[in-house]
Amino acid sequence: MTKGFINYRRVLIVGLGMIGGSYAQKLSSLGFEVGALARRQETLDFALEKGYIAHGQVEVTREYVSQFDLVVFALYPKAFVAWVERYQDYLKEGAVITDVTGVKRAVVPAVQEMLRPDVEFVPSHPMAGRERSGVEYADSHVFDGANFIITPTEKNTPEGIELVRTLGCILGFRNIAVLSIEAHDEMIGFLSQLTHCIAVALMDCKESEHLAEYTGDSFRDLTRIARINENMWTELFLENRDELLSQMDLFLAKFSELRDALARGDEKTMKEMMRLSTYRRSFFDK
Asked: Under a CB-based contact definition with an 8 Å cutoff, are residues 78 and 54 in contact?
């Protein structure tokens, strides 16, 4: 742990779902004093019983929020921006805030533009999670060996970036990368959002309840992420619409190329595509 992080021992999690709960679980296990804001008392009660948090509230108050040195926003993008707009005056002077949101161009400029100058927002994105939502599915082991992305701008300080880098390290992430918000949204459009679109379309294209007893691992693996939070992912898709449409067009063109090769019996093209896919997939196995 870096020396600077010692000054950020009180951490507030805003939004105690699966990811927020997993942050709380890990940080509490490391001796941080973790508080939480959640919409439902039942959520706080569960987290308190499990020892994920030391305390929490459903009401946002200046007295409570101003206690914390580091604030992690585990909210949907629009809710995050709205929270900052409404409650930023409650934040402690010198506090650092970060987030877990899966899109950045729709969030980072808006928040940094409105944020008071004595509070720093260092955007980040943990590339980990599960298909189920809710604090009851929190599990900090999902961070072990996963990737963590920081997307700073010219408004960020080296100290703030290093603080959030350290946060990623102590949470257990294996690889911590720094990207621009534009590069992040392009990457996430392809690696995450497009893959969710493919999984949803595959499950929707044919009634498959009767096929469950016949399927092998390939279908299960490919459609694992089709069990999806429709509210969150619809918002993420729309907030990254242009980039996601571009990635969908890219996929449709390549899928059509494979279909056309099959239709004309073009073994050469099919094998070339399969060799390329095998080669590119090998980088993900390292």
From this structure: no
Inter-CA distances, 220 with 43, 127, 199, Å: 31, 21, 10
Output DSSP code: residue 207. Answer: -
112, 123, 124, 185, 238 from 167: Cα distances, Å: 20, 12, 10, 22, 29
DSSP letter string, 129-155: --SS-SGGG--GGGGTT-EEEE---TT
Q: Report the C-alpha gap between 14 and 203 in whole angstroms.
A: 33
For residue 245, pLDDT over 90 is answered with yes
User: Which candidate, 7, 9, 69, 64, places its Cα nearest to that of 37?
Assistant: 64
What CA–CA distance (Å, rounded) separates 245 from 261? 24
The pLDDT of residue 284 is 87
| Higher per-residue confidence, 221 vs 153 | 153
Tell me the whole-structure pTM to 2 decimals: 0.89
CA-derived radius of gyration, the chain? 21
Asked whether 73 and 100 are in contact (CB, 8 A), the reply is: yes
What are the strands, taking DSSP E only, across the chain?
A: 10-14, 33-37, 55-57, 70-73, 96-99, 120-121, 124-127, 147-150, 175-178
